[in-house]
Each structure stands twice: as structure tokens, then as C-alpha cells.
Amino acid sequence: MRLDQSRRSDNVEDRRGSRYGRPAVFGGGFMIVVLLLGLLFGADPLALLETVSTSGGPPVAQGPPPSTPEENAKADFVRAVLGETEDVWREQFARLGATYQEPTLVLFSGVVQSACGTAQSAMGPFYCPGDRKVYLDMSFFDELSRRFGAPGDFAAAYVIAHEVGHHVQNLMGTTDKMQALRGRMSQAEYNQLSVRLELQADFYAGVWAHQAQKARKILEAGDIEEGLNAASAIGDDRLQRRTQGHVVPDAFTHGSSQQRVRWFRKGLETGDIRQGDTFGAEVL
Questions:
Q1: C-alpha triplet 140, 141, 147: angle, nearest 5°
Q2: I need a surface site. Which of 32, 86, 240, 262 has the fewest CB within 10 A?
Q3: pTM for this structure?
Q4: What is 215-249 written as a DSSP string?
């Protein structure tokens, strides 16, 4: 991908290295109590603070751990891709007479706390509508390449764009409609709706790539193949066959490899958000 000239997004929250993915800080009230105790008992308040911070008390503020050049490059890539999604969706929403509200992307490592609950890296990247944030452990990019056989920068960009696609659905009210139906149908029926939701996010990822390429020529030879390969690699049928040896279509929640490729490709080829009605489509 050609991202050297792409704008880097400022909507990235780096929680790598923080306990449970949440920055740890001294509360102001706690610090006042420690200082008062120090004055009352004749102890050095600064020494007390240092002791508490290293003995299981409230932890001191900490930022991300020192990063390697490779990790810094990956984080810069994420910011560039997110910036590209912001530029595209801002324009697309304006054409609809609406204002695009940008999501925040949270970088974390291991475990993270979101408005949707506690999540682990093993779950993969996800979007939480409760706080309108995309959560990403960048180690997933290596997992995508090694475990799923989908290497390449555009494969990684497709994953980010897919999660941003869920944010687009949230802004358009699609997510709320899904949640309202959750308790009114069986699990198998809801799974079918979930597949349609995920395929639409794939379509939106394709629309993003089409529009970004049209405006700024960000794609290079082989990028499209990387993205389509990634969409195929994480289809429900391939994942089920890999983990349990057989396929159970009623348990699909994201769509088959063929379906994911089809809708991602449709978005790539049309770039037209109006053609992504997966919920009204008779054939997925």
C-alpha cells in the first residue's frame, strides 16, 4: 500500500502495557490522604508515595512500554489506515447529508476493558458500539499471516476497515435494530442476521478501499488479492473446518469464505454504499 502521503489519525488510544488495557493513575484524593498521613506521623510523603506504588497499592501512571521499530511501524500503519477511513467516510456521510462521527481505535496488548466488557487478544479485533471504539492488538496481524495464511499490508487494512464498517453501521442505526431483535428469535435465526451484519461490514470495507484508491491511489499491485485472500481465510466454514473438522452452517456468525469475498469484492468494485443491503438480499 502507498500510505506515505496519507494523513495519520489522531483518534488512536494506546493502552499497550497498561493493566487490563486501562491506564493506571494515582487518584487526587488518594495522594492527599498519603500526604496528610506523612505529615501526621512525621514520615516523608514522597517516600510513602514511592513505597505504595511498589508494594501493591494504587499503581503509578504508566504509558506504553518501549516499542521496537517494527511495532512503531505497525502503529504508524494503523494510524494511516484509520486516517484514510476517516477521510472516506466523512465524504460519504456528507453526500448523504449527514456528519461522520469518527471512532477511536484502541491499541492494546493481551487484555482490554471496553464498554462491552473485558476482552482478550485471542478474540481478535472487535468494535464496541457502547463506547464507539475499535479494539486492536497488533499481534493479530502476525496471526493473520502465520495462522490464517493471509499476509500483506492490505490484508491488515481490510481487518481495520471491516471494524470501522461496524462503526458505520452503528451510526446508521443498523446495530440498534439488530439489538432490538435479539430477544425475539432463536439463536439460529439471530446467527443468520449476524452473518448479514458482518457481510455488510465487509462490503463497507470494500467501499472504503474503492474510494480511497479513487481519491489517493493508495493500492499497489497485489493488494486486492491480499484483501480477498484475507476475507476468504476468516470465513466461518474455513474456521470451523480448521478447529472442529466439520462445518455447521447454522452456527455461522460472519459468513462463509465465498460470501465474505463476494461482498468485499462488491464494495471494492462499486464503491457505492447504496448497494450494500445485505439484509434485503435474497442470495448472500
A1: 75
A2: 32
A3: 0.84
A4: HH----TTHHHHHHHHHHHT-HHHHHHHHHSS--G
